[in-house]
Specification:
Blueprint (H helix, E strand, L loop, with lengths): L5 E5 L8 H4 L3 E4 L5 E4 L43 H5 L5 H11 L15 H6 L5 E7 L6 H14 L4 E5 H7 L16 H23 L4 E5 L5 H11 L5 E9 L3 H12 L9 H18 L5 H5 L4 E5 L4 E5 L4 H10 L9 E5 L4 H5 L10 H38 L14 H14 L2 E5 L3 H6 L9 E4 L16 H7 L1 H9 L14 H17 L3 E6 L1 H11 L16 E8 L2 E10 L4 E5 L1
Parallel strand pairs: 1-9, 4-6, 4-7, 5-6, 7-8, 10-13, 11-12, 11-13
Antiparallel strand pairs: 2-3, 8-9, 10-14, 14-15, 15-16
The structure holds 6-O-phosphono-beta-D-fructofuranose.
6-O-phosphono-beta-D-fructofuranose binds next to helix 20.
Keywords: ATP-binding, Nucleotide-binding
Pfam family, one: 6PF2K
GO molecular function, one term: 6-phosphofructo-2-kinase activity
Length: 592
């Protein structure tokens, strides 16, 4: 069953100043200690980073008296020199138009190249760097969300790092008492320490961005306006940095109770008796709740861009989203779920081209490839049953742990069925749930799925999953390429990720990443289990995302033929299993 999603978006108000700048409004604290905003400077430099063919002398700026202009008036303002125009005080309309001229921060590594000049390099302040400030009470899944977001952005080549305030707090554990008392909002002394920890982490994060990072995530509760104002005030001193506030809310008691219990296994509580730890954690949450101020009017009045995720993305509210990168983040966050499922990935069975070592092409399976295809369909069926049993077993074990720690069972029964009957019913329902098979549109991949019954499986052939297009090198062996195109061969060796095969349709790994982006989003969105039958490059790219592999290693990942990778998403990350087909035994064995 798919989730019901809803999304509310709110665009910058027409009266806003410059939304791209005003995400970090000028902040001052008033006498009462609460934050006030200073008006923005009207001549803030517009923000852009996308392709433009402007040179300094062709930068046409919009004059202040544009609104009084008629078309038959002389347009000498178009010839204004950049020096004069840059010193101008712009109205909001001028700045908006000027932003359009420079583009809107559309920047895709490996696919969009921004033409700049030394001057534009110096002056442009597009969403070159992004800070995501997390907001939310403890146990609202913030760390889960940031881990996923970091993995996705890194996969897209935006270097991203999470800076967790709790980790720094734990490092300073000897200095401060870490029980619920430490989080008492009425204790000014302790609040000061917590604010300092948050600011110290912010400094680390800014330093990292200045050293070349692209997106930094401040992972903390940041649950009061005062705290957020403190962070925003510091960030305003960094004109290259844009900010997205990302709040996670949870109204589902079942998810909350599960999250609370996961905390008991985490670093703050794992060595304390469970009941005592749970009580302490709940009192910590209560302390935060006393002072909690969700994102709302305060941020909206200041045109700060924010996104609220309610119940792990079931409902999403986005406001003022004004950059390409932040738009990508919000789209991603709207598309994930927590369903228990299996994601299998395999290359197609051996093709006749694989036998002769030729790359690309559209050959069909060899006899050995056909044998693999047949074995694969049986193996997947067995693994589906095994998965259902494993899940039920894991759940039973977890309940036993809670019981041994003196806690109530998490999954309550209504008494009409025994726990064993319930488990059996659950296993059957997992086994019988819908299962999806995706293949590329190339013969060798479609033939590998030939043994899956379309009445039982939802089978789709998808072009995005086709192998990298090697253009002029299609159908050649690597040896032939090194003899005929030695320069190309060496260039690819030097930078496999960005190297694009020359000739019509030729692709790079980065190109394949972009065309599989929609596959990743779909994979995150759907809750059913699936099998993906594809090719070496696409396998590396999809597995690179699922296993959080660095881009440096990903293009060289070992993905042998006749091997199945099984991914089981878990709250703490993906669990990966690897199975190798042994042809002479006609069976799969697990590879450790
Ligand atoms: O040889 C099989 C194949 O899938 C080719 O079609 C493809 O060009 C190649 O592998 C990709 O591997 P690599 O990026 O290591 O050259």
């Amino acid at each position: 069953m798919g989730q019901a999603y809803s999304c509310i978006t709110c665009f910058p108000s027409s009266s806003s100043k410059d939304p791209s700048q005003s995400q970090i409004p000028d902040l001052e604290m008033n006498d009462s200690g609460s934050p006030t905003f200073l008006p923005l400077s009207p001549c803030a430099t517009p923000t852009t980073t996308t392709t433009t063919t402007s040179t300094p002398n062709s930068v046409a700026r919009i004059p202040a008296n544009l609104l009084n202009h008629t078309l038959d008036q002389p347009t000498q303002w178009l010839q204004l020199s950049p020096e004069i125009s840059y010193n101008h005080n712009y109205s909001p309309l001028e700045m908006a138009l000027s932003r359009q001229h420079r583009g809107s921060g559309f920047d895709v590594p490996g696919a969009v190249h921004s033409v700049t000049t030394p001057r534009l390099d110096k002056e442009m302040q597009g969403d070159a760097k992004l800070v995501i400030i997390m907001v939310g009470l403890p146990a609202r899944g913030k760390s889960y969300i940031v881990k996923k977001l970091r993995r996705y952005l890194n996969w897209l080549q935006y270097e991203t790092k999470v800076f967790n305030v709790g980790n720094l707090r734990r490092e300073c554990e000897s200095e401060h008492e870490q029980s619920a008392k430490f989080f008492d909002p009425d204790n000014a002394e302790l609040k000061k320490i917590r604010d300092k920890l948050a600011l110290d982490v912010l400094e680390n994060l800014i330093r990292w961005l200045k050293e070349g990072g692209r997106v930094a995530i401040h992972d903390a509760t940041n649950s009061t306006i005062e705290r957020r104002a403190l962070l925003l005030k510091r960030l305003r001193q960094e004109p290259q940095i844009r900010v997205l506030l990302l709040e996670s809310l949870c109204t589902d008691d079942r998810i909350l109770e599960r999250n609370f219990r996961l905390k008991l296994l985490g670093p703050d509580y794992r060595n304390r008796p469970a009941a005592d730890a749970l009580a302490d954690f709940k009192s910590r949450v209560a302390n935060y709740e006393k002072a909690y101020q969700p994102i709302g009017d305060w941020e909206e009045e200041r045109d700060i861009q924010y996104c609220k995720l309610i119940n792990v993305g079931k409902k999403v509210i986005a406001c003022n989203i004004s950059g390409y990168l932040t738009g990508q983040c919000v789209f991603y966050l709207m598309n994930f779920n927590l369903a228990d499922r299996q994601i299998f990935l395999t290359r197609h069975g051996q093709s006749t081209d694989n036998v002769t070592g030729r790359i690309g092409g559209d050959a069909d399976l060899s006899p050995s490839g056909r044998k693999y295809a047949e074995a694969l369909s049986k193996f997947i069926k067995e693994q589906r049953v095994q998965f259902a049993l494993d899940l039920v077993h894991e759940q039973h074990e977890r309940e036993e742990i809670w019981k041994s720690k003196g806690l109530e069972p998490l999954e309550k029964t209504d008494g009409s069925r025994t726990p064993e009957e319930l488990m059996k019913a659950k296993a059957e329902s997992i086994c019988n749930s819908q299962f999806i098979v995706w293949t590329s549109m190339l013969k060798r991949a479609m033939s590998t799925a030939a043994y899956f019954d379309p009445d039982e499986y939802d089978i789709k052939h998808i072009r995005f999953l086709n192998e990298i297009n090697a253009s002029i090198c299609e159908g050649m062996t690597y040896e032939e390429i090194s003899n005929v195109y030695p320069d190309e061969y060496n260039l690819r060796k030097q930078n496999k990720l960005f190297y694009r095969y020359p000739g019509i349709g030729g692709e790079s790994y980065m190109d394949v990443i972009h065309r599989t982006q929609s596959m990743i989003i779909e994979l995150e969105r759907m809750s059913q289990s699936c099998l993906i039958i594809t090719h070496r490059v696409v396998m590396r790219i999809l597995l690179g995302y699922l296993t959080d592999m660095s881009q440096k290693e990903m293009p060289h990942m070992d993905v042998p033929m006749h091997t199945v990778f099984e991914v089981r998403p878990k709250p703490y990350g993906n669990e990966i299993l690897k199975w190798r087909y042994i042809e002479h035994l006609d069976k799969f064995v697990q590879d450790h």
